[in-house]
Amino acid sequence: MAQTVVPGLERRLKAHLLGEVQFDAFTRGRYATDASHYQIMPLGVVAPRSVKEVEYALALAREEGVSVLARGAGTSQAGQAVNSSLVIDCSKYLDHLIELDVGGRRCVVEPGIVLDELNRRLRPHGLWFPVDISTSSRATIGGMVGNNSCGARSLRYGNTRENVLSIDAVLADGSAAHFGPAARDLSDLPPASPLLPLARNLLALAAREADEIEARFPKLQRRVGGYNLDALVPGRNDLNLAHLLVGSEGTLAFSTRIELKLSPLLGARAVGACHFGSFFQAMDAAQHIVKLGPIAVELIDRTMLGLAREIAMFRPTIDAVVRGDPEAVLFVEFAEDDQYHNLRRLMQLRDLMGDLGLGWNKTGAKRGGVLEVFDPKLQAAITETRTAGLNIMMSMKEEGKPVSFVEDCAVPLSHLAEYTSKLTDIFAKHGTRGTWYAHASVGCLHVRPVLNLRLEHDVEAMRAIAEEAFELVRAYKGSHSGEHGDGIVRSEFHEKMFGERLVRAFEQVKEWFDPKGLYNPGKIVRAPKFDDRRVFRYGPDYRGENIRTHLDWSAYPGAGGGFQGAVEMCNNNGACRAPAGGVMCPSYRVTRDERDLTRGRANTLRLAITGQLGADALTSDEMAETMKLCVSCKACRRECPTGVDMARMKIEVQAARVAKRGLSLHDRMIGYLPRYAPLAAKWPRLANLRNDAPRLRQWSERYAGLSARRSLPRWRADAWREPSRFPGAAEPRSVVFFADTFNRYFEPENIEAALAVLAAGGYTVHLPKPTDGAGRPLCCGRTFLAVGLIDEARREAERCVAALAPFLEHAIPFVGLEPSCMLGFRDEIPSLVKREDARRLAANALLFEEFLAREAKAGALNLALAPVAKRALLHGHCHQKSFAVMGAVEGMLKLVPDLAVETVDSSCCGMAGAFGYGADTIDVSLKMAELSLLPAVRKAEADTLIIADGTSCRHQIKDGTGRDALHVARVLAMSVEGRSVPQSSFRGPSPARDPGMTTGGS
Ligand SMILES: Cc1cc2nc3c(=O)[nH]c(=O)nc-3n(C[C@H](O)[C@H](O)[C@H](O)COP(=O)(O)OP(=O)(O)OC[C@H]3O[C@@H](n4cnc5c(N)ncnc54)[C@H](O)[C@@H]3O)c2cc1C
Ligand code: SF4
Ligand code: SF4
Hints:
The structure is a single chain. The chain is α/β, with parallel strands linked by helices and 1002 residues long. It is 40% helix and 11% strand. The chain contains 44 helices and 27 strands. A 6-stranded antiparallel β-sheet has the order 15-12-14-13-17-18, with helices on both faces. Strands 5-6-10-8-9 form a 5-stranded antiparallel β-sheet. A 4-stranded mixed β-sheet has the order 1-2-4-3, with helices on one face. Bound molecules: flavin-adenine dinucleotide (FAD) and iron/sulfur cluster (2 copies). The site of one iron/sulfur cluster has 15 residues, from helix 21, helix 22, helix 24 and helix 25.
């Protein structure tokens, strides 16, 4: 159903809804894709605040004759979460746990609640909703019910269907109905129930088609295709009408309240990592292994093991649980009542592997055995690696990508080995390959052949593979739709799999529920061809515009020197939507708006640079709004499973906008800070007037967009200056030290403390001098990058590279304090200055604590650290987390005797450079800080040390709690000095007085 413009609909929705109503092209574009390869522009997007508002939106849609698409996190892989409809986003406001009955092990939720969030709230009661899908951090219960989602432990718990007790839903005619357990004669439904006539028809249909259902529905747990008519067949399980709605992909009704069955938390578990020298044998073994009663048997094949080894985050897990170079590993998990029984199961597993002829002492196909894993942390790491399987695969940078369409097939375990082998042959026949992973226990293995859907040839191969693969599945009496649903990908094939008669029955179900096609039309029944390129994300006219970019994107394909390919790395899997855990994406955690997600930004960029949002979309105000709340924390760089680096992309967007529209006063003040800093430091009282005079505060808010509520960092009369003595030669224990703009002018005591520690460690410290005679200190260029002044940033970077070159030639470590500066030397600067010495600079740039930790690890650290008998609360700067260097801070603090350090589980502090000062961003900034950091600081006792290495983080902590936070250098200096000094009065020794100190530079 192609719907374009419906005059008046937006206005009428806005008139009655408190939740958001957005019909602009940018918002619609952000809802045009899910995690499949399709793209369909919706008519508009509504985020209702209550069920009443849902009902109102549905009534209007009905009146206007437009269809509706209910949406959760939009992580569906089959195209069921995209349509040309009015999207109703349940994830923003409809996310409440309405009722919890601990004794009865049940709860009632709104559809938009996220699975992990629900389980976080259930855990204190010893309960969980056990359908543990890989996308649990963002998938909503409404979406899981829509798709009949299946978890890794479905062997024990079943799919979503088996765990749903009842559903309250709005029917297409606007009536509300309760779907739940019912007597076969429906005598327990109220006579006035709108469900009664419908239910009668449905039961009659199921009774009539009972034989066909018996013959054509695959007898497998992993069958989520079609409508669940089998749930209605007489003589089967107890009748529960809700089970028909489960898996119906929003095509029959709109769920508003869902009642769930809960289970007790799992106790101690044991995992056996079964190694196989042949993939075929691993697949063949699955049928025998399940007889031992595991709760999960998960596969990772050789290719995936190799890819995972390449990723820093997963390598330690693979190293810990994989011995040698197996073709496949089956992770077999047991969860008996106690560890004794788990052990017995593991022994049986070992015997079984022996019976199958496998042994560690054998070679080739027969080499294998079991590694036992009891450590719960390692078990969790295995689960994490396995569930990241798809994303590990998707980290490929080429234009060809693993495509999801046959990845869901499930076959009886007795045929699994033969099936995987034949499907591999089909791939090879069509010139491609696939990587296998996932649920061997239930015969549902994920595999995605690599194809480039921009090419007609590959689209043809996709059809041929699908036809042949589904034929194979049918021959094995398997299921073509075993986990991720039908959507557009699999609905076309229902006739082949279920037969014509049952497809007519499915159509009849849809007709009874939704005769006018209100709900998500074209899914499950009457679907378009799955290879219709007009609904592809990369359709026939898809082209990247040749935009001018400044950073190095050459690792990726496509326009803008590879910028297009980098943007397209987002596969919409939604990991950035997690409301908790990790860091990504802090702005979404506050606003819960799709626009403020890494995914929302990447999709907007993709549409903009391919001309789908009109002319000049990249430099438009809408794009600026899309990027506004990105705090450039770089968390996505590390945590996005496919490595979407939005902080870098934002630099390009800013640069394009500045080139087109010039620079605002706000951006000028931020960007040029390092240039005017020497002057401001000469007259600090004058420079600080803005903070001290309320009128100036208001002026700066009005004309420069700097919030009057924020004080700016105070200029200091005692700004740090290099001592005047001249260099010594490079000595064995030498470092070259970078005094960044922020610490130099605002917190010189940090530099003094760091130099004191280095001196105490016996290091010769060199201080690089600019070679251009400009008379101002070196600067990394960070502030220029932040406002899109790339040429200025490059100029600063060039100065640094030139000044440091003599030191780098001797491979002298280059050490500094401010994470965003030092890690910028590793990240953006080699991309700006494409020379060998810039690469060398990147390779040598270390944070102060990283350098010391490295020395400690090498046994070369010679610091006498006195006890600091205190507690300390540590907050990591986002860039420290993004570059995985928090371990170094923690490691160094551990070396301080008697210091008890706790790391706050925090995302971004919200200050993020200039972000927290912005009049239009200060509120979001404060909310980010209030998510976890500021409450943790407030809870800390008065004499607890608060440690934060980022200048902005310290400022946010001071503003939000009144507490002074310390750079780790000052804590180490305290320990070196052997004294605890009150935070506010601490001053390190002057470097000029220190005999170990030299200054350097040419
Ligand atoms: C990397 C990756 C891994 C995955 N792993 C798994 C896995 O392990 N197991 C698994 O089963 N799936 C998996 N999926 C698929 C997907 O994440 C799940 O199906 C998930 O449950 C979808 O939840 P969602 O909130 O994103 O739903 P959405 O995609 O937003 O919606 C799903 C369907 O539900 C419908 N819907 C949503 N809300 C309502 C409502 N209120 N009323 C009626 N219909 C509604 C929608 O219309 C749509 O048809 C994976 C996907 C990805 C990208
Ligand atoms: S940005 Fe990364 S984490 Fe977010 S949806 Fe895209 S690929 Fe997934
Ligand atoms: S840089 Fe940070 S704020 Fe920006 S998109 Fe990435 S995770 Fe979100």
